[in-house]
Design a protein that fits this description.
This protein is of the alpha/beta class and 162 residues long. It is built from 4 helices and 11 strands; from the N terminus they run αβββαβαβαββββββ. It comes from Nocardiopsis suaedae.
Length: 162
């Protein structure tokens, strides 16, 4: 999506109707500001479902991956992120680690994660799709809206405008 929304302006306009994620993420993608409806995955040190989802048409959606906060293995690297960008995903938020960060910075994709680790994850397909996930005192429900910029991440039950 090309239009940018400043999270501070959204909070000023909508206040407590928005959830503000308290977890401090690092930005790794080439797109600093992104927003869209949410798709979710809950998985632990296994990125098979992440790869499967991001190889599907994204249509401006944001994938939120609850990796349990693990920094032991990366849940996304350059090849999966490149597929996401090519398939039209607006962004990916990983409550865990990513890798290939130099390459991620070159992609037209929003990427936020807790950190990086070059170690690959397992690929058994363990995890759950399209379930509410929670971290940072925020619930990320499928089909809610996520707004992200340099100031943080907001979640709204439906699309909002400043």
């Amino acid at each position: 999506m090309t239009e940018a929304y400043a999270t501070a302006d959204l909070i000023d306009a909508h206040g407590d109707a928005l959830q503000s994620c308290e977890t401090q993420f690092q930005s790794y993608g080439g797109r600093a500001t992104f927003h869209g409806p949410i798709a979710t995955i809950k998985c632990h040190e296994d990125n098979a479902l992440v790869k499967e989802q991001l190889n599907q048409p994204g249509e401006g959606w944001v994938l939120v991956v609850d990796g349990g906060g693990s920094l032991r293995t990366a849940l996304m690297g350059d090849m999966i992120a490149r597929a996401a960008a090519e398939n039209g995903w607006a962004g990916v938020v990983v409550f865990g680690a990513v890798r290939d960060t130099a390459e991620l910075a070159l992609l037209d994709l929003g990427v936020k994660a807790l950190g990086s680790n070059p170690r690959k994850s397992s690929k058994t397909g363990a995890g759950r799709l399209d379930v509410p996930v929670a971290f940072g005192n925020t619930v990320f429900s499928p089909e809610a809206w996520l707004y992200s910029d340099q100031d943080g991440i907001l979640v709204a039950e439906e699309r909002v405008e400043p």
